[in-house]
Design a protein that fits this description.
Elements lengths: L7 E3 L18 E3 L4 H10 L2 E2 L8 E3 L4 E4 L8 H9 L3 E4 L3 H10 L12 H12 L3 E8 L2 E11 L2 E9 L4 H15 L4 E5 L3 H4 L4 E3 L1 H11 L12
Parallel strand pairs: 1-2, 9-10
Antiparallel strand pairs: 2-4, 3-4, 5-10, 5-11, 6-7, 7-8, 8-9
């Protein structure tokens, strides 16, 4: 019987292990902090944090990886009609923390609680202040009704979470993100792990080895730092 790889316990400034050694569906490493330096190190290596409050930080690099090529975006007719209707105003980077809290507070099927802990909110707001994390927001009658957030490095966007309080709001935000990513020449939007919801937009499973090769090229490109607000 093949012995499964065990997660590495991180101590101090110990670097994250090679993601190629990660189990397909388990954490690569445990512990450490959510400092800006650590988070950027993780995303550049194809690793992200995902854990529950009260537990040490868990670091993941699943195999396969779920990616959207912006050029392959699929927009269903109902979503396209919703966009054309103009019912939502889409903004960027005007309510980042509120989007994170919306993602944390919105109930999800088959999930109890949230991985978006107060420490995660503080850490990603720090990345936002540094110009490397961004939000896409849907507003209706000047009320925030949905959106998403993630991290942008080089020619890659790493999606973290989305929420909606009214029909299609998060879908419209995702389409706007993908279309902007295409216009800016981004290589992919990282959706991390497969969901049937995002599969409808054209996201596909990619073997981790291929993902890491594509990632190395993408993060070698210049990063669009600063606010994405228009």
């Amino acid at each position: 019987m093949t012995e499964l790889p065990q997660p590495v316990w991180l101590e101090g400034a110990m670097p994250l292990p090679d993601p190629r050694h990660a189990p397909a569906d388990g954490p690569l490493a445990i512990g450490g902090t959510l400092s800006k330096k650590r988070l950027l190190e993780a995303y550049r290596a194809g690793i992200f944090p995902w854990y529950e409050e009260g537990l040490p930080v868990l670091w993941w690099s699943p195999d396969p990886r779920f990616l959207l090529d912006p050029a392959s975006l699929v927009v269903r007719r109902s979503v396209a009609q919703r966009i054309r209707s103009g019912v939502f105003e889409v903004r960027y980077d005007t309510a980042f923390e509120r989007v994170m809290r919306g993602c944390a507070e919105t109930p999800r099927k088959h999930e109890a609680g949230t991985w978006i802990t107060p420490d995660m909110i503080e850490a990603y707001c720090g990345l936002f202040d540094a110009g490397t994390a961004h939000s896409v927001e849907c507003w209706k009658d000047d009320e925030l009704v949905g959106g998403l957030y993630g991290v942008s490095l080089g020619a890659a966007f790493f999606g973290e979470s989305m929420f909606t309080r009214t029909t299609d709001a998060s879908k419209v935000a995702f389409v706007h993100l993908a279309e902007r990513a295409k216009g800016w020449g981004f290589h992919f939007v990282d959706c991390q792990m497969r969901t049937e919801h995002l599969a409808t937009f054209g996201a596909v499973d990619v073997p981790r080895e291929e993902f890491l090769e594509r990632l190395a090229v993408a993060v070698g490109q210049p990063t669009r730092e600063g606010s994405w607000a228009e």
